[in-house]
Amino acid sequence: MSSARAPRADAQRNRDKLVQAARAAFATADDAVPLEGIARDAGVGIGTLYRHFPTREALVEAVYAAELDEVTGCVPALLSQLPPDAALRAWMQRYAAFVATKRGMAETLRAGWASGRISTPETRERITAAVATFLAGGAEAGSLRADVDPFDVTLMLLGILLATAGNDPDQTGRLLDLVMDALRAKPTG
Predict the structure, then answer these.
(1) In 3-state terms, what secondary structure has residue 186?
(2) Is there a single domain that holds both residue 65 and residue 135?
(3) Residues 160-182: pLDDT tens digits?
(4) DSSP letters along 26-63, please?
(5) Which residue range is the domain that position 45 belongs to?
(6) Which of 10, 87, 142, 158 has a Cα at 20 to 30 A from 173?
């Protein structure tokens, strides 16, 4: 029985540089960006890119996974720095940026979702878990309602972010503020 070895440190650095370069490229253009340019921007050869990511889809999926990890992984830090309601609003802005950067990768991501290589339910579960963490902290602090289903909030956010895709960021912010108004605990007494 063989166990998988961890990649060499230089191989991991190259992979990380490729993901970072692809993130930057996909954020400013579409997923048809030439892979040679991504390799060049990462400071590696095209062969190194293909060793790590044999297809464009594999690279797009790695970028998506890295960004999803960041958007869901920042929850504890936000909650340690801000009150739960402010942390949730800051996270919503970060989630909006995450969704906005996906526009450049939309076609490849759709193909990944359709084929099952990228799991839409897993993505929603992770986003909903993040929302649930904020809601629980806010309910405990008395700043957010305790009677809200986190999945409902996820659906509201998706609706806003998909409806405002590519439009005025101020409008997106106003709509996110409305969601926050709906989530805030009502004063008692």
Answers:
(1) coil
(2) yes
(3) 988 887 678 899 999 999 999 99
(4) HHHS-TTS-HHHHHHHHTS-HHHHHHH-SSHHHHHHHH
(5) 8-54
(6) 142
Q: Give residue 97's pLDDT.
A: 84
Residue 189 lies in a domain: no
* Termini Cα distance of the chain: 66
The answer to whether the CB of 91 falls within 8 A of the CB of 141 is no
Rounded Cα gap, residues 21 and 23, in angstroms:
5
The count of other CB atoms within 10 Å of the CB of residue 73 is 11
- Write the burial class of residue 168 (CB in 10 Å: 0-12 exposed, 13-18 middle, 19+ buried): exposed
Check whether residue 130 and residue 162 sit in a common domain: yes
Using DSSP's 3-state secondary structure scheme, residue 144 falls into: strand
Amino acid (1-letter code) at residue 12: Q
